[in-house]
Structure formats: structure tokens, C-alpha cells
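Example 3.2
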Amino acid sequence: MRLYPSTARPAAAIGSSPRTRPGAARLRAAFAALMLSALLAGLAALAPRPALAAPIQVTDILGRQVTLPGPAQRVVLAQARHFQVLSLLTPDPAAILAGWSDEFKTSFAPDYQVALQRFPSLAGVPVVGRHRPDTFSVEGTLGLRPDLVVMTASFAGLAPGQPAGESPLIGRLEAAGVPVIVIDFFIRPMENTVPSLRALGAAIGHADRAEAFIRFYEAHLAAIAKRLEGLADADRPPVFVHAHAGITDCCNSPGVGTFNEMVRYAGGHNIGADVLKTATGKLNFEYINSRAPQVYVATGTGSDAAKGLAIGAGVDPADARASLWRVIEGNHLDALPAVRSGNSHGIWHAFNDSPLHVVFIEALAHWIHPERFADIDPAATLEAINTRFLAVPLEGTYLVDLEP
């Protein structure tokens, strides 16, 4: 049986000797191909290869060494309020968000709607609980296959100074192989903000971005501290912070930690800290009136503007000012020295559990010591943060003053 028609020479034999057999030509071609393949393999072995992601080790605010195999790509926020922190540290926070609590949708509804317009995928982020630890679902969280869970020490069930090993919540997650980072911008904001930023920024692969904001943050705080050097306690005017003003009966106020540290840093004295030994509590009207506060600051999120302070995303300054007066009058605070003198103000409450509290501290310094901080413009600082850092800029009214 012939392999080729008798009228044509095999293609492999073209140009070869008439005596060369087609099988020999095929062998030579196969050998040449084999040698070329070996040469290319050798060259590929010598070429530089892309490095595998190196493990990342960070230190959280409890001093825990947490190791991740690489930058976290699926992050669960036990408290969704910290979405603003992710927004500082990455240009696309929605891309790495695997799950969160429901509080951003509820307690910060106006800001959630703005974030949703910028990142529509947020609508599909699974909810793993409310903002309280007793509602947090470990099973639901593990089902999302996260490579990082972020929470606060109090959410983890830890009292100040209590070791992380005593948290059943952290223990269950880590036993399942999920790293946990503990952060804090609330209980000890002046101490824990920078290490919290540094740990989270490194964990999600944006250490450089975190360091850039840290430099901005520290420079603004240093400028305030320098102008208040040597300030005596007698020169710290009494300040009343009316938290979630109008939403509850008069009057919720910060005690220790949180706003108290910020008020003190800004050169004031928080009247709530003298009687409230927890982070927050309630002051009655008689006590507030007896302390004759020289500065009044109402806070709100805008989620219940009909009762409380209309402030935050999309709010007009005139509406914010009108709501501030409504809150003051509705709580019978219009006779306070701070109100009579015109040193009354409203501010977005969510500044308090975020590195954005640098804006609040500048505003407090400006209100408490106007003679020392006349040239400080917290609104300009917020605009700089919007432009340089935030993936979801804060656009609306976040600070408001009441005229005498």
C-alpha cells in the first residue's frame, strides 16, 4: 500500500535527496522541534518570574501579631460604620467587602445612599448581623469565606485590658482559620487611631495609602497641640456635647473616652466626664444648667432629621441650622450661656468612630478657643480629605453654627 500518490513527492521530502526516505526526514524534524522546545524551556527557566504574594504580618491595637497569606480580598466588617475607614484606605472599598452589619444602611442611611450611588454592588453585600455582638452570625460569616474579619475589642466582648484570648468570638473565627484584626477609633481614639489605620491598611495591601493619611492626620493634630501648649485646666471652658440630639430624651452625652478625649485635646472640659464613668450616658437638665457650658455641640447622623439634627449627606446649611435651633428649643436649652452667646454648633456624629475625627477636633478647637484658632478651617480640612483620600466623599453639611 502506497503512503502517497505516485505522482507527487511527500512534502517533507521536498528539497532532500531522492534517496532520502520520508521517515528519516520526519525524525530529523521531530528532533529539531524537541531541541527548540528544550532551548525555550531553558530560557524560560532563566527569565525572572513574578514573585508570589508574601505573607503580611500586622499588629492590632491589642498587640496581637496577625498574619495573612497576602492582601485581604474578602473583608467582613463586624460594624459597618467602619466602611468609612475602608473608604480612606482603598479607592474601591466595595470590591473587597464580603460582608457587614446592617447599621450603615439604617443608622447612617443618607450616607449609605450616597455610597450606593458610587458603588452599586454594595446593595448585594451580605449582612452578618446588626451592630451588636449578640446578633453577629459566626456561621454566616464563615459561609462568606472571608480572609479577614475586622471588629472592635468591645464587639469581641473584651473589657479594657482584657487579653484577646478571652474572647470566644475571636477564638471561634481563628479556629476556623480566619484572621481577625481588632481596631479602635472610639474608646481611646487619640491612642489607637494610628495603629488601627496602620494595621488595616497593611492587611488590605494599601500600607502606603494608610501612611499618607497618617501623615496628614498627625500634622493637623500637631498644629492644634502646639497652640495649646501650657494650657492650664482653669483655662479649659466647660463644653456640653449633646449626642444624638433630639432623638432621645434630654440629654445623651459622652463620658470617658470617645468625645471626651477629643474635647480635652481641643482645649475644653467635657462636663459629662465629671459624672459619667462610661463611654456614654445621660445628663439631666438641672446638671447641665448648673455647669453653665460655654460651648454647646449637638451631634446627629441625619437618619432621623424630623426629630434630631438634620446634618450630613445632601443636607442644605439652612436646613441644618433650622434643625439645630429646633433641637435646642425642644430640649429647653436656649437659656444656656453657650446658646445666648452664639457658641452653639451642630456636627455629624459619625466623626467620632473614625479617623475623620480630626475634622471634629479642629472644629472643637475653633469653637472652644476662637482667639487661638481663628485661622483654622475644619471645612477646608474635610474638603482636603474628600479630594485626597475618600473613595466616597462627604458631600453635604457636616458642620453648622447657630447665630446668637
